[in-house]
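Q: May I have one protein plus its fold?
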Amino acid sequence: MKVLCKREQLRDALAVVNGVIPVKSTRPAIENVCLVASDEMVEFVGTDLEVAVRYRLEEVKVEEPGTVLIPARVAADFVRDLAGETVVLETKGDICSITSGKDHCELVTIDPDEFPVVPRFVEKGAIPVQAGGFTRLVQRTAFAAAREQGRYAMHGILTLIEDDTLKLVATDGRRLAVAFSPIDAKGSGPRRAIVPTKGMQLFCRVMDDALETVKLDFDDNQICLKTRNAEIFARLIDGEFPRYNAVIPTETENLLEADAELFSQKLRLVSNVTSADTRAVRLSFSKDGVEITGRSAGCGEATAQLEAQFKGKPSEIAFNPDYLIDGLKNCENEHVKLEFNERTSPGKFTLGENYVYVVMPITVES
């Protein structure tokens, strides 16, 4: 194999596939990136057996087609620090050389037959989705997905397609993010899947044009996304996702409307005195707005006043400030709405059109 590539494009391709490839694996072949050169195109293929990616470079010169398996991270690190504009990839025997100007590297290859088979995207039945809209839905929800060990289904994002609507839901059991957007899914029946968060984030990474129409498809085992340059495949999570609708308050007695950026600033201010053991802030509501209080035995106490519109009875509720700040970072409106009933009931934050974030309260000592 011998291929001439532009350095920046090669760097980007290796960065994308390295987002999937494991550093260490019981199956050494998948620690490598598979390069397949044919005609005037090179495919970069990577997988961790749960998520797989095919990334295409078409602005290349293929002098000799072929397939090679090379150490993924070593190749990416070497190419990242190259200064030349053009990079030559060439294999001789079990060695693949990477050359740019006077800089040169030789990598030991392994048998491509040891690399697992990665499927190709099937166009039939795929649903068109605007890249920017899809990315926005993922950004609205992925931060709320579980990271700690626990219920496996919470480590993914529930993906629903029904009535020409794409809805994403993520939760870690203490907070819940729900966002949806209209799409053109005519002729497609209802779809439901729990997609690994890693797969969703990779989907977003390969969508570099917000206006591009990408194609989405999933069956009982995997979800697939196709863009102009890439195909991503993610094995679905098998499990029972929580009944998220039961958590979202439908009727509430108290409503706060506040400037989202100022609310976030006050929360950060007060959270500075809280500790890992007492990571909580108390929100006390009155007709003048809300008083935010935080304290810990080791640091002390802090209070901040937030002028806001409040409708309801004087009351208070406590939350983990990190959860509120995470949500406010993604708020798409100038003002955020917080609705709740009692100090023990969940708080419902409206962060944008078709975008709801629910946070469970914390019990703190008075």
